[in-house]
Write a structure and sequence with these properties.
about 140 residues, alpha+beta, 3-stranded antiparallel beta sheet, 3-stranded mixed beta sheet, 3 helices
Length: about 140
C-alpha cells in the first residue's frame, strides 16, 4: 500500500498531563489528560470523528444543492472498562436545519461511513457506530 498524504504535527508536554499540539499551519490544541484546561485525548478523537463526518455530510449535501441551514453532530462513546479503554460503541446524532429530505441526509452519512471519513476508517474494525438524524424545518 502506497502512502499518498502525510500529516505532521508536534506534541509538547506542558505540565502535569497537559500537552500542546501544534500543526505546521500554526494551529494549536491543548490536550489535558485531567480535563482541567483542555480536552482529553479521547474527547479529541470523538471530536475528530464528528468533524470528519460533518465535513463530508455538508460537502455532499451542498453538491446535492440541499437547502442546508445548519448542522450539529452530538456524540457519545462507550469505552472499554479495562485498559486499553478504547471506544466500544459510539452514537452520533446529526441535527439538520433546513428543507433537506431525511433520505438525502441518510445518503450523505452512509457515503461518509462507507467511502470518505478518514477518521472512521482509521478506527478499530470492531467499533460499533450508530447514528440517527433529526431534521428541523424552518
Amino acid at each position: 500500500m502506497e502512502i499518498t498524504t502525510e500529516i505532521k504535527l508536534k506534541l509538547r508536554w506542558q505540565r502535569g498531563l497537559q500537552f500542546q499540539i501544534k500543526t505546521p499551519s500554526r494551529n494549536e490544541v491543548l490536550l489535558d489528560g485531567e480535563q482541567k484546561q483542555g480536552i482529553s485525548p479521547m474527547e479529541a478523537l470523538l471530536g475528530a470523528l464528528c468533524g470528519c463526518m460533518a465535513t463530508d455530510v455538508v460537502t455532499i449535501l451542498q453538491k446535492m444543492r440541499a437547502d442546508l441551514k445548519s448542522l450539529t453532530v452530538a456524540a457519545s462513546g462507550a469505552r472499554n472498562a479495562e485498559p486499553p479503554r478504547f471506544f466500544r460503541k459510539i452514537e452520533l446524532v446529526f441535527s439538520v436545519t433546513g428543507s433537506v429530505p431525511a433520505e438525502r441526509v441518510e445518503h450523505a452519512i452512509q457515503l461518509s461511513f462507507e467511502r470518505y471519513c478518514s477518521v472512521f476508517h482509521s478506527l478499530r474494525k470492531d467499533l460499533e457506530v450508530t447514528h440517527r438524524v433529526e431534521i428541523q424545518r424552518e
